[in-house]
Amino acid sequence: MIYCPSCGTANKSGSKFCNQCGHNLTGVSKAACPACGAANPTENLFCDSCGAKLAPLVTKGSEERAEIKGLSLPTKPLDEEGQGPLDGEEMPAAQEEEASVPEDTAKEDAGLPEEGEAEEEMPEWLLRLRAASPASGEQPEESAPSETPSPEDWGEFPSEDLEEADVPEWLQQLEPAEPMPPQEEPSAPEVEEGEEALLSDVWAEEANRDQLAAEPAEPEAPAPAEEEPPALKPTEELPQQAEEAPGGIPALAQPPSDEEDLAAWLQAEGPVILEPDEGEEEEEDIVFEPRAGETEEAPDQGRLPSWIETLAPEGVLPEELGGEFVEEGRRTPEAMGLERAEIPSWLEGLRPGRPGEQMPEAEETVEESGVLQGVVGALRLVQDIDPLPSSQMRPMSEPVAATPAQANLFADLLSRPTSSVVKPRPVSAAPKRERGFAWLATLLLIAAVLLPFFATGLVPGGDTVAVPQPVSDLAERIRDLNETDVVLVSFDYDPGVSTELDWPAEVILEDLEARSVNLLVMGVTPTGPGLAARFDIPAGEALFLGYLPGQEMGLQRLASNLEGIFTVDFFSNAVSDAPFGVKSLNDVALVLTIAASQETVRWWMEQVGTQTGAPPIGAIVSAAIEPAVRPYYASGQIVGLVSGWVGAQAYEEAAGLPASEGEGGPAALEAQSLAHLAIAGLILLGNAVYWGKRLFGRRA
Amino acid sequence: MKSRLGRSLVTAITIGVGLLILANFFVRNDLLSLVQQTLLDWAIILAAIALILGVFNVIGTHLRKIRGRQSGWLYSIFLLAAMGAVIIVGLADPRGPASPVVSWIFQYVQIPLEATIFSLLAFFVASAAYRAFRVRSVDSFIMLVVGLIVLLGQVPIGAAIWGKLASAKDWLLSYPSTGGARGIILGAALGAVLTGLRVLLGVDRPHAQ
Questions:
Q1: What gap in Å lies between CA B25 and CA A585, rounded to an integer?
Q2: Distance CA A432, CA A426 (A)
Q3: Do A487 and A560 have their domain in common?
Q4: Mind telling me how many Å the CA of A617 is from chain B's nearest CA?
Q5: Among A537, A673, A691, A695, which would you mutate to test the B interface (most chain B Cβ atoms within 10 Å of its Cβ)?
Q6: Residues of the domain holding A196
Q7: Per the structure, how many domains does chain A have?
Q8: What does the pLDDT look like over A7-51, one tens digit per residue?
Q9: Cβ of A627 under 8 Å from any chain B Cβ?
Q10: pTM
Q11: What is the ipTM of this complex?
Q12: Contact status of B134 with chain A (Cβ, < 8 Å)
């Protein structure tokens, strides 16, 4: 199987693309173990070398994906699973091989070099298992977890791999017991203080050996089932066993001659046998058989089961637990100055249970995600099997002589104050020259605008302007109005340009008032009527219609039928009460739009100016849109045009009105003239600098 | 199927209404005029409602800005407070927007603020004039000369500099500038006609988007 790294789907081995998401699987061949770094086949969930969980531990997401896809994690308890299939299958192995495996493992534990002949003595199934695990040979031997075969390997060792002929008769008679509830987690027995370390060590060795050798020594335990768990053998017996085993290792006891006794002993003393339920998947539904002798008495303190004794390598057990185990001429670890390490916590879970042992309350874990979500205790041993985080499992490297010196130098460099101060970049990316010019232009413009208000007459001829033809045409049109005529004035500009358009509007309204014409005041912009209300217009001569919504549509409606659009005026008075009635635009003598946008002028031209019998339209606009409005004047659609302050001044002169004072008038025109002059000067100055740089730069 | 029928119905209504309004420009008929005025009244009412919807949109936008503590959320508080105050004052007075308080706010708050912001444009123009109007080619030289003529001919000082500067400005605005502007206006008008025809023929359906 190849697990897709993208979606976690299990794909058939050799697949090039994921059958679920189409992810390319060609590059997915090996997965590095996060703990030991060994290369594992991608289908492994646990490391072949150290047993650490692989991909699911890397990222939580990947673990969830793997679970979502319904692939159960083969998280069999290490001790029990190791005993389950191996126990049942390996027991029939040759008697000669039973002793060789513990011998080999014992030598590794003792730090002795592995002998070549030990491999020859390994059982056949173990050799196959070893061959199937590519990373087994890469794992350092001193690493304790490296000796733990992965559950994946156990899963590859089903009972069908062995023929029935391999199973001895005495084991075939052992009918699998009915599924029993899971065995409680083992706990350390009550031992004396001096024996605790030794027992922990022995249990750890036992657990490791269980996984590899699957308890080959159980049959040779001669103790009957009803007896107490075997303790250390008397000193007279152990040498005898050692004589029977090759290599000087204490030989395993011969199995009981009576097969019934053997079966009873296996149930009482032997490892737990795992049996899967029928009809369910083997990996997911493993039932752990409890020991048959749970109610038996606890073993005596300081006494080990006989099958543990047989696993003990030479020279490992201290004298207080049977110095007879120590082979003559071989030194104990204590004698070699080695301290015995306490059993790691993670190995506690691997320690086999003992009859009558007080088991601690198993902490029931509940799966929080995946297909096993909500199942209690389904993967409760995962925590025990899982190795420590990789950071904790890495062996501490021995500091070399240069390391402290380098560390001191690095700390010294860090503690030194920085010699240079990082200067922040200037906030403005513009060069100083540019920023200085911007200030110069601003000051020049302010001076040009303010100066005429303090000293008039700076501009020669500044109070007189030539009257353009559009202005004179509009003045002529207004001059021809009668007192009974109605003029519609639309304020179509915003307060932003009121400074420029208020003066022309005031001049026009003053002239209309002087003619005593009737005024309809409105606006196609929401702020227009408010702007119009600021002017002093006699109420008896004007009707403030207010705001006409709808823009072009409103003007179209106004042009088609003015009556009915406005029911009340801007001051909430009924339009019907107006002193003069207007039913349509045909009753209007002149339309004046005061606009700062060519769009509003265009609306008037298109929606009103095109109507049959539409009144003539004049425009008072800002100087900025004059070029865009001029075509309407040139085509005759606009009868007159006044543009900006200059247009207002020109209209005063054309209409014979008195010169304005205050905001408008000669001072305003002089300020505008100086401002225009300043801007023109800046344009010329900029070009002079630009061309000066180009010319002198070339010469340089 | 249902949505297709709905779209077809909307398209048919649009085309029908457009043809009715258009026909009133060519045919004098009281019924057509009445239909046109009624439809225009509806459109004006919808436009007025759109203004109210715009107010609600502004309120919602700035409330979200305040709630999310987005950039400038303090300004949103001031905006909503000012808008609420003006609306309350306007609704409280039966004279509406013509009430003295609203007129005072409009004249002494809104108008000066908007005029001030618009006046800042002069300083940007002055600063940009130095960098933008640089003669790099013949075209830019022509543009510079025309700009200077219109700029100075627009104000009385132009006549003081050169007597015919104002006349030159008028000529530029009356002929070259008007020609260009008229071309733009005609182009926009043709585009509007084409767009109207596409809508009337059902080719474009902006109302169905």
A1: 16
A2: 10
A3: yes
A4: 18
A5: A673
A6: 78-94+157-365
A7: 3
A8: 777 777 777 788 888 877 765 556 677 778 777 776 677 777 888
A9: yes
A10: 0.53
A11: 0.86
A12: yes
